[in-house]
Fold this protein.
Amino acid sequence: MVASISSLLQNVQLHLKSRFNVAPLIGLELEFYLKPQKDSFDGAYTNFQSRAAANGLHVVKEKGQNQYEIDILQNGSILDLLNQLKSAKDILVNVAAMEKLDIIFDAKPFCDDYGSALHVHVSLHDDNGQNVYGTHAMGKEYLHSSIFGVLELLDQGIALFCHDRDFARFVPGMMCPTNISWGGNNRTTAIRIPISDDTRRRFEFRVAPSSADVKDVVAFLLIGIYHGFTNPHLSFPKIYGNAFDEQYALQILPKDLKMASKLFNTKQTLKKYIDFFANQY
């Protein structure tokens, strides 16, 4: 994204704190596939899960054939989150090798099966650690402003964390987003609000591919939240059914990196935010 993504992340957080007195907690879900090598053996998948558990990783089955997922719980330190993700991926690769399995972090490794994503969960907290989305009197407004800011910049931002091959994942009916949308417990939208109690209220960003650099995704999301807070007039309709249904007439996600890059360079809004936050000292 920029030469010093770490500085940009820090600066966006500082502005969110100084202007709005909120700090983010970020959690992750990483999806991946396992593929047997020629000399793999019966029980390799079960053994993989057991070995991962012994190393502190809870691996659960996902929708695709031999597709799995791990969760990394919400963390207030983005640096710690990045280190946890790197450590988790290293463990998964090593455990897969022990079981004669190839591990695949590509967004769409199999054209006729589900894609793999890096789902990012975001909540905002005040000085007392209270979740402002769920416990604050203006909680719904905070949540909606965050979501609407991210959606407003999404067609520009997708170029920051998707490679050209990642766009093949955006297929209707495959439990992934295909357009700029949000909903409640709706896995066809770009942003979902998972069912939770007030203390755990958060939104889930479902667009990033499993191969994405999490720093770029988180930086985009924090900029989107800042954009939403500074532009409270933004609004997007809540989608209750399948977001890919034509009746909703929603803006489709860019079809490839060329289109996404053109939107990033021509619309300029996100680009200006990046330049601003990258040059704060």
Remarks:
- Helices lie at 5-20, 44-54, 78-98, 132-135, 139-161, 214-230, 257-267, 269-278.
- The first helix runs from residue 5 to 20.
- The longest strand covers residues 23-36.
